[in-house]
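Schema walk-through. Below, the input block comes first and the output block second. Nothing else is stored per chain. Lengths vary across the set, and this one has 152 residues.
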Amino acid sequence: MSWEKLDESTLNKIKKQKEFEEQTAKSLKPVYEAAQNPLVKTVLHGLILDTTKHAETYQMLIDLNTSALVGEESKNLGKKEIAKHLKEEAFMLKQTQDISEIVKDKSVKQVILNILEDEKKHHKILTELLALLDKESKEWDAYIYDLIEGFP
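--- output ---
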């Protein structure tokens, strides 16, 4: 396994940060719901999603450090469903690429290019996840840790 257990002090800091991320996302929701400007609303929604993702990522680190059995995932995740989502993600990637090529306004183009980068990341992650599901369960830990090194 290529995962080093965290010391108690570091683990406690991660737990506190996870709680702070959750509180921050929760506190942003009423502001988001009250926002009238579509730009402000979209930015706030993105912050809520990212902050929630960060909290979940911290929880993953806590789980992996304590006792979560990552290898069991390969038995429960359906390869067929992942493959379906991979095809959908490939379609979204192509559509976003097409849009980015026809947009002329620099500000709008940058927004589309940011989405395109996310689509590329999603496609890569799903491709690697599908490959991981083909591995034996006992190999899962090493591969999943390599996958998450660059995520989120």
